[in-house]
Amino acid sequence: MRTLYGRRTLIVFLVWTILAAACLLIERFFPALLPLPSGVSVFRFGVVAFGALALGRLLSLTITRVLVLREKPVVEGRMIGRVLGLITWIAVVLIGAWALGRLSSFGTVFSLFGGMVIGWSLQAPVSGFAAWIMVSLKRPFRPGDRIQFPKLELTGDLLDVGAMYTTLDQVGGSIGSEEAVGRTILVPNAMLFDEVVINYTVGQARPYMLDEVVVRITYDSNWDTAEKILIGAAREITGDIIAETGVQPYIRSDLYDYGVYLQLRYQTHVNGRAEIAYRIQKRIFEEIQRDPTVDIAIPFIYSYRAGRDMKEPGAPVEGRALQEVQDIDLESIHTPRVRADAQDLEQLVKSIAVHGLLEPVIVQKNPRQGLGAPYEILTGNLRVEACRKLGWKTIPAIIRPWRGDDAVARPADAPDREKKEG
Predict the structure, then answer these.
(1) pLDDT at position 411
(2) Rounded Cα gap, residues 136 and 146, in angstroms
(3) What's residue 417's pLDDT?
(4) Is 239 exposed, middle or buried (0-12, 13-18, 19+ CB in 10 A)?
């Protein structure tokens, strides 16, 4: 109670108490002094009025003390104290109207306008109370369910349904995934009559829902192997859920520019959706890294294993390490004389200047010393010329071992290929 609010409340309580005691003392010695129309004296009215105000402050101090002992914030006691203060002042006004003999007139005015004001102000609370009764009887959702308000773009785990408010533990909001963030949200019950509420777990003893993990694979990947990896990961991680629901994971697919979307669909626990998806994705990633017949597709680059030999089912992983991208001198690359379209070259120069080089060139080591350059260009002739125009000294490249003249890109088809790559 050693807060500023506690000290101020105590001081006001002492002031009202002293004034009430003073009025009581004067009224005892001068009972007929300054009578009011109701027959009571001003000082008797003062005793009642100041006593009521002091009582309100005393209740506020007591409630605040109880809340502090329960380790609640002092501000909660301040909130209740304001309500008690309003009630005591209303009581003082009514007592004053009675003492002045105007209580009947006050009642007439209040019946004309007060009823309308109270009815208007209590519309939402009455609707909220009715919604609470409806939810308690029909039970469309219950504490522990995960519900969603689409119009409010709000999802949360239901903590409690009170007489005025529905309390949620917000899901998402400050993060991208569907996990409870520990932020409590109060939704007025009156809104339940106007909002569509989606219950993720209605009618289920345990809350499960359908979820999806999407993996993009290249067109040259082994589809059957990829499907086995995805299904195996889902069965491993959600084995207990499969045993309880009897629903097996399955695959759906879709084609797109860079490869195939494999959509793994499985039953997941509503509250653990993000964690289960993470574990499945991690398991899938580990298995794809171990299997050389399945590749992940990436935009702009055919696959993250670009530049590797064609994969064969069952081929060992050892000895097939990823080829690293190295920066090599532009002058060390021998490029054949290709008649490139000037407009295409200029567009590529502008693109590289803005976005950078999105894909490394591919070269092979050239054992012939007569060319004066240790590397022969395989893919990326137009990109090499564009980088030279930009004044680059080096360029990212994947270096392959020498495979003979047949491996070198023919000058006639190089410009067309560069248009697609650039």
Answers:
(1) 42
(2) 17
(3) 41
(4) exposed
Contacts (Cβ under 8 Å, ≥6 apart) of 54: 13, 16, 17, 20
The pLDDT value recorded for residue 324 is 72
pLDDT in tens, 213-224: 999 998 889 999
Per-domain residue ranges for the chain?
Answer: 4-121, 141-199, 206-322, 325-421
Q: Is-contact 102 38, C-beta < 8 A?
A: no
Report how many helices (DSSP H) and strands (DSSP E) the chain contains, helices first. Answer: 12, 13
CATH class of the 325-421 domain in this structure:
alpha beta
350: its two tokens: 């502008």
Show the beta-strand stretches assigned E in 151-207.
Answer: 154-161, 165-171, 180-188, 198-199
Q: What is the pLDDT of residue 375?
A: 84
Grouping H, G, I as helix, E, B as strand and the rest as coil, residue 240 is helix
Low-confidence residues of the chain: pLDDT under 50: 1, 301-322, 369, 407-422
- What's the predicted TM-score (pTM) here? 0.44
Residue 132 has a CB neighbour count (10 Å cut-off) of 19
Residues 22/28/31/35 CA torsion (nearest 10 deg): 20
Q: What is the pLDDT of residue 284?
A: 95
Fold category of 141-199 in CATH = SH3 type barrels. (2.30.30)
- DSSP for 269-331, written as a single string: ESTTHHHHHHHHHHHHHHHHHH-TT--B-BTTBS-TTTTSPPP-TT--STT-PPPPEEEEEGG
Confidence (pLDDT) at 217:
92
The one-letter amino acid code at 117 reads V
Q: How far is CA 38 from CA 32, 75, 96, 103, 109, in A?
A: 12, 41, 10, 10, 20
Q: Is the dihedral of CA 349, 353, 356, 361 positive or negative?
A: positive
> Is CATH 3.30.70.100 the right assignment for the domain spanning 206-322?
yes
pLDDT of residue 194: 83
| H or E, element range at 211 | strand 208-217
Amino acid letter for position 286: E
